[in-house]
Design brief:
166 residues, mainly alpha, two-stranded antiparallel ribbon
Length: 166
């Protein structure tokens, strides 16, 4: 149960089997309060703001050199396009994309906590449609190459050549 989470609403949230296994490793007597409770500073009791956590994740992405794309602007010193490093939102997007291949879009909507199915469809279903199209085209091309080889084997010219060899 998530209390006063996104949109300041209490709600039940589905979790993945991997996350459930992770939670089960926590000793039962410690299973109270928030699952993640990062502290801004040990001497304070306040939790870190989501923006602070996001900044830390982005810093880790940069230090680990996890490049996820390019920025639109060009570095004036090098003349090269600047890279974009992994952020907390990239981790969220990656989670959504991975699960979009395993569950139906309405289930994904719940996992991603989208208010509208349109958001889920825009970001994940369209991507899967493009992947499906690529797979179909690749399969058709492989099939047409295979068909053209077998057609050449059975062509009248090749049949005569094989009869002469026999």
């Amino acid at each position: 149960r998530a209390e006063a989470e996104k949109g300041n609403k209490d709600r039940l949230l589905p979790i993945t089997p991997e996350f459930a296994e992770f939670l089960e490793e926590v000793p039962e007597e410690e299973r109270t309060g928030p699952v993640f409770n990062p502290r801004a500073n040990k001497q304070y009791r306040d939790r870190m703001l989501p923006s602070s956590v996001s900044k830390i994740v982005a810093d880790i992405g940069e230090k680990a050199n996890v490049v996820v794309g390019e920025k639109g602007n060009i570095d004036k010193e090098t003349g090269e396009r600047k890279v974009r490093f992994a952020s907390a939102h990239d981790l969220r997007r990656s989670f959504g994309f991975r699960w979009s291949r395993r569950v139906r879009e309405f289930e994904l909507k719940e996992l991603m906590r989208h208010e509208s199915i349109a958001t889920t469809q825009e970001f994940y279903v369209e991507e899967n449609a493009q992947d499906t199209a690529r797979s179909i085209w690749a399969a058709c091309q492989a099939d047409s190459r295979s068909t053209s080889r077998s057609t050449r084997k059975n062509s009248p010219k090749n049949k005569k050549e094989s009869e002469h060899k026999a």
